[in-house]
Specification:
Layout (H helix, E strand, L loop, with lengths): L5 E8 L9 E19 L24 E15 L4 E12 L26 E11 L5 E11 L8 E12 L3 E12 L17 E4 L2 E4 L6 E12 L4 E12 L6 E13 L3 E13 L11 E15 L2 E10 L59 E12 L2 E11 L21 E13 L4 E12 L7 E2 L5 E2 L5 E10 L1
Antiparallel strand pairs: 1-2, 2-3, 2-23, 3-4, 4-5, 5-6, 6-7, 7-8, 8-11, 9-10, 11-12, 12-13, 13-14, 14-15, 15-16, 16-17, 17-18, 18-19, 19-20, 20-23, 21-22
């Protein structure tokens, strides 16, 4: 959808009192969105992030439906000082209708303020960075808290972080470089590291002693992407992503190297990539820190005009391992501590099978929450067909997914047989029926249903001791999306 900007040019004298200097002009640009979503489902739990094993959910709620409404607002301000320098900020306000209000105890948290009287402190900082043209070079730099994304459809990283990014454009070549400081020391959310209190600068996190000397321990990534336009139709690229961390007892470095390409043949486009990882496994949510890594991921995708609409397909394989030592599971750069998704595969366009941030607000729950998928990896095929008729549109999707390799450390066990089931997670069908009320406002009805695979057979043990297969997940959403 085309987004409009509200632009106001303001001429201001930089003066104190009556002291006059030369005048300057700043162009102020405001953008944003407001999404309100009603969710009727037996799957989502408001505020949750991870449903990698349905057997680990609250068994009292299995099969029970519930309805909630939540909203997300994003407010973006860009201050353009001139053609070469600008400031970019973006803020977010999330809440679930009826959640909490005027609560001092929650004022240090987020995602509240939807109950009667509202008045909750819940403004989140997404981005604050400067962007400028580097003198004498064909390079633009961004410095500050900014979006950090890979060029591999999000399976390695897609997040906001403190970073330096440079984009250099030559005749047929574009070179992107990014240095990201993901964590500085061991006091990030969820950390349970225990270290000596050195230099008199230590504190506690989750009841444990944590060192807070700036810059002593960190997680950093260095991302280099090179894209070459062979022709208007064919583009190829190569990447090298290096992650260094010493948050634990030692230092670990993992290297991710990749190739990607896309080709436009008129009525359609095909694309794909291959990623290979090697090195030592860094601190992550899935253990095996410091173990040797040898893993890979590959994808083939495409879309083509077919009849009145567009057909889509994506195939993904990300390797897994058995959890017994050597790491052959593809490692996305995931957020530490609380399991939030920072690597996923939105190209699948699923509602429950794989995380899709298109519909995210407070709730962002999926059977496969990250591509690493508890070191079991992913293999999947995803198909779709989109049709637009005047102001109306229909998007339909089919997804099939399994874990790439059985990992008994994380895989749920069949409670009846005491053994592990097949690796097939399930099949999702979903559809979105939408209408463009105006250029900036869209209303949609989204429905999804997952036929669970044998991966989940008899994995749920209820509070009364009985054993069952979790009910097939489903959801229906009404979504209003306003952009400006």
């Amino acid at each position: 959808m085309k987004q409009r900007s509200m632009k106001v040019s303001v001429a201001a004298l930089a003066a104190l009192g009556c002291m006059g200097t030369s005048a300057y002009a700043i162009e102020h640009q405001f953008n944003g969105m407001l999404r309100v979503k009603g969710d009727y489902t037996n799957f989502d739990q408001a505020g949750g992030n991870d449903a990698s094993g349905l057997s680990k959910l609250s068994y009292n709620n299995l099969g029970k439906s519930f309805f909630f409404t939540e909203q997300r607002a994003r407010l973006k301000y860009t201050g353009k000082l001139n053609n070469d320098v600008k400031l970019v900020t973006q803020f977010e306000i999330d809440s679930r209708w009826g959640d909490s209000s005027q609560d001092v105890l929650l004022s240090g948290g987020r995602n509240y303020g939807g109950a009667m009287e509202a008045d909750q402190v819940n403004l989140e900082t997404k981005n604050v960075y400067m962007e400028f043209k580097v003198p004498y070079l064909p390079t633009t730099a961004r410095v500050g808290i900014q979006p950090v994304d890979d060029v591999y459809k999000g399976i390695f990283i897609g997040t906001d972080a403190a970073a330096v990014t440079t984009v250099t454009k030559l005749e047929n070549t574009t070179i992107n470089f990014n240095w990201m400081r993901g964590y500085d020391n061991r006091n990030f959310k969820g950390s349970t590291s225990t270290v000596p209190a050195v230099y008199g600068n230590a504190g506690t996190q989750n009841g444990q002693s944590v060192e807070k000397v700036p810059g002593r321990h960190s997680l950093d990534s260095f991302m280099l992407d090179v894209k070459y336009d062979v022709s208007k139709a064919l583009k190829i690229g190569a990447s090298d992503y290096v992650v260094y961390e010493n948050l634990g007892s030692g230092s670990n470095v993992i290297n991710t190297m990749g190739l990607n390409a896309s080709y436009n043949f008129g009525p359609g486009t095909v694309d794909g990539f291959f990623l290979f990882q090697f090195g030592d496994n860094p601190v992550n949510n899935f253990g095996q820190v410091g173990q040797k890594v040898s893993s890979f991921a590959l994808n083939m995708g495409g879309k083509m005009k077919v009849g009145p609409g567009t057909a889509r397909a994506n195939f993904l394989y990300a390797s897994g391992d058995d959890g017994k030592g050597h790491v052959s599971a593809f490692q996305g750069l995931n957020q530490l501590g609380d399991g939030n998704t920072t690597s996923t595969f939105p190209a699948a366009q699923m509602t429950m099978l794989i995380t899709n941030t298109k519909y995210a607000a407070n709730t962002d729950r999926a059977l496969i929450n990250t591509i690493t998928n508890y070191n079991m990896g992913v293999k999947g095929a995803f198909f779709g067909y989109d049709v637009e008729i005047d102001n109306a549109f229909i998007k339909t999707n089919l997804g099939l997914a399994a874990v790439a390799q059985e990992n008994q450390t994380f895989k749920p066990k069949n409670q009846t047989s005491g053994k592990y089931n097949s690796n097939y997670i399930g099949t999702e069908i979903n559809a979105e029926f939408g209408y463009k009320i105006s250029e900036n406002l869209t209303a949609s009805l989204v429905s999804g249903y997952v036929f669970l695979g044998d991966y989940y057979k008899d994995t749920a043990k209820l509070v009364d001791g009985s054993i069952k297969t979790p009910d097939n997940p489903w959801k229906n959403m009404i979504v209003l999306n306003l952009t400006f």
